Amino acid sequence: MLGCALAVTGLVLCGVSDGRPRLPGILARDVAQPERGPADDLIALEDPGVSRAERDAAADRLLDRVAEDGVREALTRALVRSNGSSGPRMAVLRALARRASAPEELFQAAVAATYMARPDEQIEAMAALGSFRTRSAAQILVTFTRDDRPAPVREAAYAALIRLTGRVDLGTDSSAWWDWYFEAITLSPLEWEQSLVRSLAGRIDSIRRERQNLAQRLVESSRTIWLSAKPDDRSRLLASFLLDDVEDIRRLGFDLVRQEIATGNPPKDEVGAAAMTLLRHPRATIRAEAARLLNQLAPPDAGGAVLAALEREEDPRVADALMAAVRRWPVAEARAPVLFWLEEDPLTTAAAADACLAMLRAGVLDLEVDRPRILRALRSRRAEDLRGPGLVLTLELGEESDRERLVGLLHHPEAPVRLATAEVLGQSADFVDVLLAAASRDPALYNTASRAVRDHRPTLAGLRAIAMVGGGTSSSQAQSMTLIAERIDTASLLAFAVDEVVPLVLRESALSVVQRRRIDGENADAVRERTLALIELAKLRLELRRSQAALAALDPLKDSPAMLEAGPLADTKAMALVMEGRAGEAMRLAASADAWLRAIELIIDEPLAPRMMRAFERQFRFAMTPAQWEKYVSLRARLGFERFDRLWLPPGEAVSTGG
After folding, report:
1. Could you give the 3-state DSSP secondary structure of residue 656?
2. Listed residue (110, 80, 95, 75) closest to 17, CA to CA
């Protein structure tokens, strides 16, 4: 356990890898090289004609096989050889320095190599000893901090000690390191290991904080450079950010590109090319983000790169993002990888189904071959895995049993599944009644059902049906009525408006669309129809106590001759004026006493009601029928007039004085 911990901490502290490629499996096959054996690497290690990089790579591979007797012996010989070229010895020392934790089997040989090396070579030997992480290695390193050692060697020894122990606080003080060592040799093996882990953990935290601060400063500097750059240079900078090895800069690049897209300034081709390059990045998360970026940028030449990436991809998260991009470039060559992911992983079902839909629309699917395969995959998935695209594909390619399965999902216990299914079924006129029934028991489906009525059944019957479903919020119901009514003729809306079974507010919402309609003034029937509709709309609004809105509905009819004649138009406007407290204007209209009384009844609890009653008496005290007089008396009593006022009786009867 400690060895693993030391290895991890060593990697963090050193910031180096062991030289081996870190590619996903399918990418590794693309760059695979012929298998090399230890004999080939031993030859490369000893060959003076090979480059330093080749020799170092051979040493790294040999260290991987140090447990093999022949390899271990060969590495030991290379370290302790006293004659000939020092190239093999230095290559092995450099390979040891690159290790988070060097193999103990080579420690003695590394020590011997250190003392055999020239002073300039001892600098790299110090780094190698720092990888052994033992008290013995620390002892050797401390001896190289003495003043009789060359300054560069001492500096290398201090650096190796800090790397081995994490004790950055001791710096380049040789006495402090000797004191530390004398204390360390008194510890038990377990105490030594625990102290080493603690100090290395502290060093890791310190480096992490330093790195975060440096990364933040680097990001801010890069952002400042980008903001100050000329518009023509910004795309080039963004591309360089995306391809930067520093994660924080690459993240800045993705953020800035998305910001540019959101503000309507899509970057130039360099950014798309950088995103295509990132489709081969070793990290799956970066490949997925690059695919999503290409889907947003949609460069015309990206289809081939997206398809090639999908064909070699093994990570379902990346494949999901790539298939979302395939929708932009649906080609027949995408069938094989898309169908593979449709069958392979539930996590990619929705994206694969969406890509299949795009290929279906583009006519590149071989339905005779692909349709059975697609349906088998969709039938094997849970409803929650299908989501929208899978449900649409099931509806379009499926048989009657598949459609029945979709209808059954309207009873699914999970609301998102029910809603997604309703949205898909709402695309077909065949399921309007099914959705109406579902919405009557599930208010969450009301909006979807109303859209289905709007799209497939914009008739008086459809409007009545959705009005009687109920459910939804009052605002969503009113909005649904309006959207459906936009597609229905005025005569049908009039019939709907007088249907007292339908809630008043829904009738008003539907009929309100007439107010926005324009008609040919020469068409007498159309003019009459619209006039009746506006009067009915105003009446509905008056019943809802919306007198100003009622006047607005009547405004297009203000120049109508009927406004000054007894009848529905004059009565309706007079009611609105009375409810607004504008009695003088109402008196100039040929309105009936019934209209006035109804208006007063609607505002009976408002402060202006007594004043409107006085105006009514001045206008109609000698012109009421018995029925009107009874209603007048009733309203008068509600206002408290009988306590102090004289009551006017119907014509033909004596006038009596009120109490």
Report:
1. strand
2. 95
Shortest CA distance to 129 belongs to which of 109, 148, 149? 109
Which helix or strand (DSSP H or E) is residue 494 part of?
A: helix 490-497
* Alpha-helix residue ranges (DSSP H) falling in 81-188: 87-97, 107-116, 119-129, 135-143, 151-165, 174-184
Of 10-19, 320-329, 591-600, which gets the smallest average pLDDT?
10-19
Rounded to whole angstroms, the Cα distance separating 58 from 65 reads 11
Is the four-CA dihedral 459, 462, 467, 468 of positive or negative sign? positive
User: Which has the closest alpha carbon to 165: 198, 190, 196?
Assistant: 196
Query: Which residues fall within 8 angstroms of residue 130, CB to CB, at 6 or more apart?
Result: 97, 137, 141, 159, 160, 161, 163, 164
Distance CA 309, CA 303 (A): 10
pLDDT in tens, 266-308: 888 888 999 999 999 999 999 999 999 999 888 888 999 999 9
- In 298-414, which ranges are continuous DSSP H helix? 303-312, 316-326, 335-344, 349-362, 367-379, 383-397, 400-408
Which tops the pLDDT comparison, 120 or 573? 573
* pLDDT for res 16: 34
* Cα(20)–Cα(446) distance, integer angstroms: 59
The pair of three-digit structure tokens given for residue 453, joined into one six-digit string:
């009525």
Q: How far is CA 619 from CA 287, 552, 579, 589, in A?
A: 83, 25, 16, 11
pLDDT digits (tens, 9 = 90+) for 217-255: 777 877 787 777 787 788 888 888 889 888 888 888 888
Residues 350, 341 contacting (CB under 8 angstroms):
no
Please determine, for residue 565, whether its predicted confidence score (pLDDT) is greater than 50. yes
Cα–Cα distance for residue pair 221/225, rounded to 1 Å: 6
What is the per-residue pLDDT across 102-111, written as a single tens digit (0 to 9) for each?
Answer: 899 899 989 9
> Which of 521, 518, 502 lies closest to 510 in space, CA to CA?
502
Query: What is d(CA 638, CA 399) in angstroms, rounded to the nearest whole number?
Result: 68
CA 382, 387, 389, 391: dihedral to nearest 10 degrees? 60
Residue 647 has phi, psi (to 5 degrees) of -100, 125
What are the tens digits of pLDDT across the range 11-34?
Answer: 333 333 333 333 333 333 344 445
The three-class DSSP label of residue 646 is: coil
Instruction: Return d(Cα 523, Cα 519) in angstroms, integer.
Output: 8
Instruction: Give the up-direction half-sphere exposure of residue 309: CA atoms within 13 A in the CB hemisphere.
Output: 34
Four-point Cα dihedral 526, 530, 536, 542, nearest 10: -170
| 560 secondary structure, DSSP code | -
Tens of pLDDT, residue by residue over 346-378, are: 889 999 999 999 999 999 999 999 999 999 999
Question: Region 64-76: what's the mean pLDDT?
Answer: 88
d(CA 497, CA 594): 21
- Residues composing the chain: 659
Q: What CA–CA distance (Å, rounded) separates 119 from 83?
A: 17
Taking residues 407-436, report their average pLDDT: 93
d(CA 201, CA 183): 20
* Residue 215 confidence (pLDDT): 65
- Select, from the ranges 41-55, 217-231, 498-512, the one with the highest average predicted confidence (pLDDT): 498-512
pTM for the model stands at 0.62
Residue 106: name the closest of 81, 124, 83, 129 by CA: 129
